[in-house]
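User: Fold both of these, please.

Assistant: Here is the first one.
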Amino acid sequence: MNSVRFRLLILALAPMVVLMPLLLFLGMTRWTADYDEVLIANVESDLRIAEQYLSRLMVQTGDELQAVAGSVEFAQTPPLGRDAFFEEKRAALGLDFLYFLPRADMTDVWPVIQSAAQGQGRTEIDIFSGEMLATISSDLAERARLPLIDTEAAVPTDRTVEDRGMVIHSATPVTLRGRDGVLVGGILLNRNLGFIDTINALVYQDATGGGSRQGTATLFLEDVRVSTNVRLFEDVRALGTRVSAAVRGKVLGEGQTWLDRAFVVNDWYISGYLPLTDSFGDYVGMLYVGFLEEPFTIAKRNAFLAILGAFVAVLLLSAPVFLRLAKGIFAPLERMTHTMFLVQRGNLSARNGEEGGTGEIGEVAGHLDDLLDQVQERDQDLRTLNEELNVRVERRTAQLQSANEKLEETFRQLVMSEKLASIGEITAGVAHEINNPVAVIQGNMDVIRESLGEDGVAIRTELGLVDRQIARIQTIVGKLLQFARPGEFADLKQTVPLEPVITDCLVLVNHVISQAEIGVETRFDAVHDVRIDPGELQQVLINLIMNAVQAMGSEGVLTLQTMDAERDGIAGVCVAVSDTGPGIAPEQVNDVFAPFYTTKQAEGTGLGLSISQTLIQRAGGLISARNRKGGGACFEIWLPAAVRETDALTASA
């Protein structure tokens, strides 16, 4: 009786007491989950059938409308008999409205009508207002009107009546001689009980006979039931009731199909809600099918109770025998199992001790304690080594990261320094080479004046023009030298109003803008002036305008706007230069101000934006670039506002 063989034999029978309840629970849980999945799959299949029927009805409506539009009878019907013809066809086809819309009278914004006007027939679900329904037919408006019924768990609303109509809206082109236009027809789905009962009959053929799936179908306009066979009472349909807020949020708010249990008016249903979109692509309603959950809940409960009762009966008969035989072996094994559980959870000091039992099991418990002693010792050693290694790795990683950041920063500064140094040398050399011939020209002009004497009066205007152009060249050379060696020049900042500067810039580049179909829009909303050299500001603005014109090509809109803008607590003015061109490649937005960067390989030097950035930064401002949401690029210049003398005196006082 005390042998290991006998105890193992008893242990082999023990799972009936220990494992069978767990397996029973897991099995029933899994069976219930699978059962629920089957129910969800069923309602999903039902929803697809309803969706296919609605789609078929829409296709059929479009086909019938197309057949009427192309019929010989329609072509031969005189204008005076057209109303009677349409009424006859409307009744024959089961439509709620049918009319011809000449192209000359076409003002509708409905996408289905616009599509038909372009030669492509189209059928969609659309929402007509009560006024529009009344324009078509007072009967349609009255049929669509539903009083709203307060519904538990629905989104709160102040509305008391739903007078809009959900219609199958179809239009097809008419290209017959003398009848150029669109043929429009449709079906009102509000209170269309034949439509919704047909869906219910297709999906739940046994519902009326009391079958296992007692289902319903509903059409929603947004969250209002406008056509349904759900009952408020035995003979009263739940028209005007509303769906719960949870279903509305997921289906209409997120555009997702609902496949789950839901409370429908007065009972729980396994439900499927499909979002419906109109011709504009907006979610305007839902198609619902579902069947009562209660019969299936009762079936699951009965099955579970039957299996549970059978198991309890078997357990009560066998439990006394199992408990008596297993008493001598379960306690030590449970103790060892508990010890291992504690060790697994991190308690390495847990041991069996004297409770490990006697005999072979006791020896196993002792060996287990010895092994746990060794595991605890080695774990402590490993933890110590791991902590030391982590400290070293973190220290070394921090050093490498710091060194890498310094290296990257140094490299960026070096590249920028090299580029700017090259620009300075080139600019200074060019300016020097230009200054020499300009000086010679100026000297010879003086000689010409002295040589001509009184005879020079006849060409005094021309000589003055040459002098002004020489002065202009000297000014430009001075700007080049100022860019190359800014430290050698005094600060020439002035208080500048932006509107005259921008206006002058547009005059200077008008010859370029006028060569293409480019419109110019200006908005001067800034109140403050700025402090900057007006020539430098003009140089920056002309560069940005020329870039925008070149980016747009043959046509587009150039927009220049000024506005007051505060930055880091400092009052300032923002100047935005926007275009409708292709914009800047996203990966290149951060590189446009780099020296020598250009997208015009055969035309530009890549220095325009870099120089512009230097001039704006020297004035204490910032320049940035971004892409507009509607297309095109936008360059924004921010400059600090000029402090007026009165403001300065007030601040000092």
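And the second sequence with its predicted structure:
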Amino acid sequence: MNFRNDINGLRAFAVLAVVLFHFDVPGFKGGFLGVDVFFVISGYLMTSIIFRRLTKGRFSVIEFYADRARRIIPALAFLCFALVVLGWLVFLPSEFRAFGKAAASSLGFFSNIVYWREAGYFDVRSHLKWLLHTWSLSVEWQFYLLYPLGILLVRKLFGRRGTVIALIGVALVSLGACVYLSDPTKWPTAAFFLLPTRAWEMIAGGLVYLFPVTPRRLVRRTMEFAGLAMIVYGTLTFNENNAWPGYLALVPVLGTALVILAARKHSIFTCNPLAQFIGKISYSVYLWHWPFVVALTYFDKEGSLPWRVSAIAGGFVIGYLSYALVESKTRKPSHNEEMRAFPKFITLRPVLVFTLLLAIGGGSIYASQGVPNRFDRSVFIADSETYDTNPHRTKCHMMIDPCDVASKQKDSRVVVLGDSHAEAVAEAVVDAVPNGKPDDVLLITIEGCPTIYGIRRGNGDCFDQDRKYIDILSRDQTAKTPVIIANHWSQYWSGPSTEDYSFVDPERPAQTPTPFSTESYREHLLSTVCRISKIRPVYLVEPIPEFDFNVPLMLAREKMKNPHAPDLSITLSDYVERNGGLLQAMRQAHDQCGIHLLDPRPYLCPDGKCMGSHDGRPLYSDFHHMSEYGNRFLVPMFRRVFEQS
């Protein structure tokens, strides 16, 4: 197939959309759809290669895989190697450990599965994952492995016509699964990251090849303009709150299909010199731009416009160098001019060996806990608190791991109820039970959900789960087991996500919800805890001190500079200023219905300062979750529950 300048120019649109979105350039909130454009292009090109070679009787699966490896692996391996060097010099052990896992999974082309199990693509935490963007390469590679084998099998059984029908059927099933699972109440993260819900986009590109059209010039112009308009429209109007990919992904997929079908060889949009240049280096730019995005966050420069502009330029400059020095040296030249400009001299075999060694190295970094002996032991002690979290995790976790609360709470000596903050202090409660054992504490956590009767998160979470457990704990007249409620109170009172919450009448959940306000939150908090307190003793854990920085990472970085760096803390006045309204609401609950208050300040805030670390060891595993070391400071506080019961 002759080189398609229009497709090369279309890559420029795709990579620019992605880059501008990732760097948070105003107006490009939907730029993530550039990946969908790449998927369609990839499906078109792969289908054309397979069917053209099958028609000529010289298709080889091994040769197909080798061509794809030449196209993808060298530049990816070069990126991973450069980041390994950076990580060795800069990353803390926990960060280097996470990177090792990411590098191994990226080079093994299963990083999409790893990221699916960790967090959503649009989550804030994702901006510290140096290889997050390789998820799309993993999806494509998995498609490359299965696609030719499936075509060969079906073609042998049912011929070309049957193969085309099968591809249409698979695409429809994949699209249906994509739309269904993208619903926020289903499995949106799986729909985003996994091949079964993305395959239809690449098959759509294949169907464009299998159903070519030859319209007249005016019609081709109209098709191209309409297709580009759809891509630009989505880039400018879609945003992270859309259920993605879902049915909205049809916009960039159909738009890309129209541009490819139009096949305009001299388009002013896709065939101009700038679009051709950016399209040529688009893969390397895609690889390199994201580490610059992460670097802005990692080095706390994301709020600086000059740094952001420099990072965008850096992504393109390093992307070009990657293309010129690595990518173009191993891929097959598309025409003679390019072959003369960049003579191929790197064969595939040493690249694969190098890549295998890198993948093994990434796994070794992960297994060795990030090679902690690179630094003073004080760095490792501080940094390792990141992993010092509840070893037993949750006993009753939303609807994922349900348990019989009604019966288990009768056999328990105390119920710990709340969100992830409850999970973070639960083992301290276990230690506080006189002559106790782990089963004496029933832990019920609903992460990201305040323990409020009738509250709903934007995507539908919290309401049913809260109602289920609060109903059980407030209706059984025979149960007198005390309940300890711990929440990330400030997050729900005045945090940035308060607009995601609303209040619903539990008796009439279909009615229009009431928007969130601190007054409504206070009223519902009082009614919830007072409801439970009619049946059993209720203990509210007052707000745990929290920090504006990741405590173990901050302390570890300070220890990198100076192993004798002082401990971290905030002033008690900062704590009171942040939580004053909440403390007043909790005191009101105490006065109104006899709620017991558990105040962590005497244990965490001696001498007017709230400890972030003690003797060089953090009390937290992040910004505000207590570590297993830190929560032991609260064991005396929780003993009060059993002294009074």
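DSSP finds 26 helices and 13 strands in the chain.
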